[in-house]
Amino acid sequence: MRCVIVVPTYNEADTLPALLDRLRSVRSAVPGAEVDLLVVDDSSPDGTGDVVRADPGFGDWVTLLTRTAKDGLGAAYRAGFAAAVRGGYDIVVQMDADGSHPAEALPAMLALVGAYDVVVGSRYVRGGATENWPRRRRALSWGANLYARRLLGLRTRDTTSGFRAWRAEALTGAGVLQTLSHGYGFQVENTWACERLGLRVVEHPITFTERTAGASKMSGGVAREAARLVLEWRIRELLGRTSRAPATSGDRLQGAERR
Ligand SMILES: Nc1nc2c(ncn2[C@@H]2O[C@H](COP(=O)(O)OP(=O)(O)OP(=O)(O)O)[C@@H](O)[C@H]2O)c(=O)[nH]1
Ligand SMILES: [Mg+2]
Asked: Is residue 62 part of a domain?
C-alpha cells in the first residue's frame, strides 16, 4: 500500500519541523506501507520551502511542490492531490501543517481506508474534542458546521475537517480535482460531493489542538466565501443543476521538487 500525506503550507516555517518529526515516528507505526509526504507551499516568504529541503527525508519520503503565489487552501490541495494521483498512490491524506491534526491518529485512520472511501478526522463525534481553542473560534467552527449540515442535509458531523484519508479512486471519483472553493469551503464541498455520490464516509474521533506557533490564515473573507458557496450549492440543487464547472485552470503550479 502506498500512501501520501499532502500538507499545504503558507508561512509555516515555525510549525513544520515538529510535524516532520511526528510524521517520521508515525511512518514506522504503519508497517508494510510506504508513507510519503508532499508539502504544497505557495512560495512562503518565511522560508518554509527551505525547511522542507533541509529535512533529512527530503528526496526520499519528503517531496516539495512549490507554487508561484498564495492562492488559497483549495487550490493548493487540488495541485497536491493531482500530483498524488499522477504518482499512483493508493491512499491520499490531507492534513494541516500547524500541529492541530494529531499525526498519531494516522495508523488507525489508514486502517479504516479500504472498508471506507474517506475517513474524516472528526472533532464532533463521540471521543472527538478541541483543545485550547478560544471560545470565538469554537463558536465559528460549530456554527459553520451546523449551517452546512442543515442547509445541505449532510450526515457527517465535522463537515469542515481538514484531516482526511481518501482512497485515491474516491478522491477522483468525487470530483475533488474539479472543485471550486478557494478557502475552507473546500472541505464542505468535498463532504457534500461524497455524500451525494453515496461514497462510504466514516468519522474517526480526533483531538484538534490550537496551533502554538505561526499565524492562522483563517479570515472573514474565507468564512464568507464558504457561507456563500454552501447557499449557492443548495440553490443549485433545488433548481436541479448539480453539475460543476471545471475549476483547475487558474491553479498555479511550478512543478514537484525532489532532491
Ligand atoms: N499552500 C497554501 N497553504 C495554505 C493557504 N492558506 C492556508 N494554508 C495552509 O492550510 C493549513 C490550514 O491553515 P490554518 O491557517 O491553520 O487555518 P485553520 O487551521 O483552518 O484555522 P486556525 O484554526 O485558525 O489555525 C495550514 O497548513 C496553512 O499553512 C494558502 O493559501 N496556500
Ligand atoms: Mg490551523
From this structure: yes
Mean pLDDT of the chain: 91
State pLDDT tens for residues 87-106.
999 999 999 999 999 999 99
* Residue 49 vs residues 40, 70, 167: alpha-carbon distances, Å: 9, 13, 28
What is the pLDDT, as a whole number, of residue 250?
A: 35
Among 42, 64, 100, 217, say which to mutate for ligand 1: greatest number of ligand atoms within 8 Å of CB: 217
Residue 181 lies in a domain: yes
pLDDT of residue 157: 96
Please indicate whether residue 196, judged by its CB atom, sits closer than 6 Å to ligand 1: no
Number of domains into which the chain is organized: 1
* Nearest CA among 161, 134, 153, 147 for reference residue 73: 161
Q: What is the CATH number of the domain that holds 80?
A: 3.90.550.10
232: containing domain: 2-246
Domain assignment present for residue 174? The answer is yes
| C-beta of 211 in contact with ligand 1 (< 6 A) | yes
